[in-house]
Write a structure and sequence with these properties.
By secondary structure, this protein is of the alpha+beta class. The protein is built from 1 helix and 10 strands; from the N terminus they run H-E-E-E-E-E-E-E-E-E-E. About 20% of the residues are buried.
C-alpha cells in the first residue's frame, strides 16, 4: 500500500512539476526578450527592421527584403525608409522619394511605458524631419512614427533587432 501511495505521490509531483515549468517557460522567455530589448535601447545600439509601411489615409503596404532600416549606433542615426504620400514641395511629389539621411547629433528621449518604451528622436534645425517616435513593445515589435516638415506623416511597423 505504501509503495502504491509513494508511486502516486511521485507521479503527481512529476505532473505538477512539468505543468508548472511549462506555465513558467513563456513568461521567463518574454522576460528575457524584454530585458534584451531594454538593454539595446539603453545602449543606443539597435536596428528597427521595417516590415510594412502605413501611409496617411492609405492601406498598410508590405516592404520586401531588408533594404529599409532605421539604425541607432551610439550617437549616430542612420535612416533609409521608403515614403508613400504627398509632399508640399513640388520637386518631392514623387511617392518613391523616401528618407535617407544620417544624423550625428540628436536628442534621444527614452520613456518606459506599461507595455514597452517610447523613444523620441529630435534634431535641431533638421530641414526634413520635425521628430520621430519609436514605440517598442516588450516583445520587440515596434512602430515608428515620422513627422516630416514637407510631407504628410507616415508610420512604419517592424521589429527591433541587434
Amino acid at each position: 500500500m505504501n509503495i502504491v501511495r509513494s508511486m502516486l505521490c511521485a507521479c503527481a509531483f512529476l505532473i505538477l512539476t512539468v505543468t508548472f515549468s511549462k506555465a513558467q517557460s513563456p513568461q521567463h522567455k518574454d522576460s528575457l526578450i524584454a530585458n534584451t530589448i531594454k538593454a539595446l535601447l539603453d545602449k543606443h545600439t539597435f536596428r528597427f527592421f521595417v516590415q510594412s509601411v502605413v501611409p496617411p489615409g492609405g492601406q498598410t503596404t508590405s516592404v520586401p527584403g531588408e533594404n529599409y532600416t532605421f539604425r541607432v549606433q551610439g550617437d549616430s542615426l542612420h535612416v533609409n525608409l521608403p515614403y508613400y504620400g504627398r509632399s508640399t514641395n513640388a520637386y518631392a511629389d514623387n511617392s518613391q522619394i523616401g528618407f535617407t539621411f544620417k544624423w550625428g547629433q540628436f536628442d534621444y528621449k527614452l520613456e518606459e511605458k506599461k507595455k514597452g518604451w517610447n523613444i523620441t528622436f529630435r534634431r535641431r534645425n533638421s530641414p526634413d524631419i520635425s521628430y520621430m517616435v519609436l514605440n517598442v513593445l516588450r516583445s520587440g515589435v515596434a512602430t515608428l512614427y515620422v513627422e516630416p516638415r514637407n510631407k504628410q506623416p507616415i508610420s512604419y511597423m517592424g521589429n527591433i533587432i541587434e
